[in-house]
Specification:
Elements (H helix, E strand, L loop, with lengths): L9 E5 L6 H10 L4 E5 H6 L14 H20 L3 E5 L8 H10 L4 E7 L2 H11 L7 H10 L10 E3 L5 H14 L5
Helix pairs in contact: 1-7, 3-4, 5-6
Length: about 180
Amino acid sequence: MLEPDDHTPILILTGPPGVGKTTTAGVVAERSARAVHLESDAFFHFIRSGYVEPWKTESHKQNQIVMRIVAQAASGYAQAGYFTVIDGIVTPGWLFEPLRDALHDAGHGVAYAVLRAPLSVCIARARDRKRGPLEDLDVVKQLWHSFSDLGDLERSAINLDSESPEAIAEILEKRMADGSLLV
């Protein structure tokens, strides 16, 4: 169990659609004494007009704005003493950097964990959901590929096979404790 203190980093838990981010983030938060599970994807749905799907090239400015707002919300919870888990499709190069930078600017440490499962697993899970724009399998494939080569962030990857959310939560707790997810 993670006990939050003033030095506990905010955890960004990400990966492609269908990898198990939201379920795992809930488990991680529930295992902590005081925790918040902040679903960053929901912040995009607050936009009622002028919305652009975040995986489209023309969404870059919108994405930066939304990630700064997510960072402000996460920062507020963390400053109030909650271990904060941000879950969402936070891809390097598009969403990660603005979120990380805003959290650092607010004085927070940041841990970044990328869950990765085989494409076939992610597609099967996305297909089973049948809700929202991510039922488009081409988008699922595009987003899956955006996490396949993390470059300097490769150490943040957690490659999965059939682990349960509880087992993944244990891996995350160990990696948070040893500092290997800090960015």
